[in-house]
Amino acid sequence: MRKSIDYDATWASLRKVIFDVLTLKPVDRIIWSDSISDIYSICISSSEYIERIYNDCKEFLISHITHIKKELTGVYSQALLKKYYEYWIKFSSGASYLNSMFTYLNRSRNYMHGSDSSYEQMPYSSQENEELPAEIGQIAMQQWQEIIIEEYQVELVNVLLAAIENDRKEENIPVADLVQGVIHSFGKFFYQSVFEARLLEETKNFYARELARLRESYDFSGFIKAVKNRIDAEQHRCQKFFHVSSHSKVLKACISRLTAEQIDYLNCECARLVKNELIDDLNCLYKLLRLVDNGLKVMLQEIESHIKRIGKLLVINLFRKTCEDYVNAMLKVSDRFSTLIQQAFEEDPEFKTIFGKAIRAVINHSNSSSTPIRAAEILARYADILLKKGSKNWSDAELDDKQSHVINLFKYVDDKDLFQKFYSKFLAKRLIMNGSISLDAEEEMIKKLKIICGYEYTSRLHQMFTDIRLNEGVNSEFSSYLNKKNIKLTVNFSASVLQSGAWPLNQTSSPYSIPPDLERSLTTFEEYYCTSLHRGRKLVWLPYLSTAELRMTYLKKGYYVTTTTYQMAVLLLYNNALSYTGRDIATWTQLTEKELIRTLSSLEAAKILIKENSREGNSYKLNLEFGNKRTKFKIASSSIRESPQEITKVHSRIEEERKLFLQATIVRIMKSRKVLNHNSLLEEVIKMSVNRFSPSIVLIKKCIELLIEKDYMKRNEGRQDEYNYIA
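-> structure tokens emitted (727 positions)
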């Protein structure tokens, strides 16, 4: 049974408590609890009382806020701001407590209006929810807006904007909590439609004036630093004063005046900064331009042009120097501009992309259209110097660092297939002549190449290492074969068997007559390998890659000399005579005139043979007075330098191989896709070729025409830019 209640007496009691709560006076815990109980009793006693207490509470709030309004009358400027803030802080806190005290009333009214039947408390807000009746706390905020804000809005906004301008000028800096508190007292509608609109307008006007002052007061370097400081300060100010919804708008207004509208001036000076590589100024300008939509476009172009200009000037002067000079200079350019990108542009991905594009253009630059690009060749020669015995005694760490430098440049080389051609040629020579500084270092280099270009690119290089390792077992088994057959050779003999498909070797050697001392060894090894070990295989001997060690016993001191096969063939003749004419040597050895001259010249230079001129022709006599500081030494062969014509031939072979590769790639794509338009085919071919070389559009088109002629594909009759695969 509901308990009867004296509403007037109860309201009189609640009225005093409401006043104390709104003015933040101390309220005893018991009185607080009793007040909540009284509100509960009123709500459950009658629905009429619910509306009555709600309206009485609203009238009390209006009366209280009207009293505050009178207290603010006659107060202006900063004093108004300070006094308003004091009343607001006290009132907003009191309204929050009051809303908690009237929780049951709020729930009851929601229930009566058919909402929130679960009696869940609604979030406290200064804006009335259109679907639910306003709660006591919301009524308090609404009345504050209607009575106080409407009355003092013009004065408050003017004082706030003046305080914000003082903060921008760093004059009479206002208390942050005071400005922020007053701004946050505005309702959403008033804040956005009145205050924020004025704020954005004043922001633009202030920075228009500030821009003129900065342009007049500073040179360009000082100007961009001052602008950067201004924007940073404004960003901090937004966080200090304004609602989060205004941050981007205020910053945009600031940036628009100081940067976006000055983009032509900034871009004009950008070229000078890039040319002189002024890192601090470039970094400051970069931070300003990235705030503007598409603001970095000109800076990116200037950086790319600058790197290309400096790099290409360097390349023009380097092609006539050594490959070490070239690589070291390229590394210097790469490190120089890599540091610039890191320090000035904070490793921005756009600038890293431009850096890579520019360095690629520099490395693949040619002095003229008729001159082939030599970057791949030079880089391969440099790698050969690094990995060949006789180079500097690098530590493992230094050698790995040098290899990494080669790979860093190799990434930008377009003609990776040309690099592979030269590198495999030099690697073959190092492995055959046992000239590698370390097999581990060789394999590490190939691993690095594999990471960049994939397994197919390095498969032949891996096979070369496999052959070298297998040869150890082959020679060991050959020795066992000789013992088993009780065969005794007159010379110690070992052979390296190399797969013709993996090794870039010329299989046509200069003809020569095999010395009798060696002929039996060769025949026996062929018999062992082609019958006992691998039936059906054919061996082709490459004497120009072979070496021999001879013992010189005709002198007082014994010597061991390492020679080429052709030098050995000449020297073994002197077991039978002390002197031969050039014609006799040619007859016995069957060497070509070119090879014979080269061989005799090297033996004469080593002072083992003495050349004697006569009417009958030149003769070569064994030097019986020969001497050398070393017991073991090597006769240097006359080096065969690659002529420009031979290098041109390599490039020509590469061009032919590229045509075959592109044709195979096109067929593979068309076989998979069946029908493909011209542009899509070009894209896929370029994508599949990029790890070997950068094919030109002209070359791809030629290959397409060749395949059409060979009936691998045809043009679609209905669409000339579309191709059909012919099975």
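The beta strands are 547-552, 559-564, 579-581, 609-612, 619-622, 632-634, 675-677, 713-715, 722-725.
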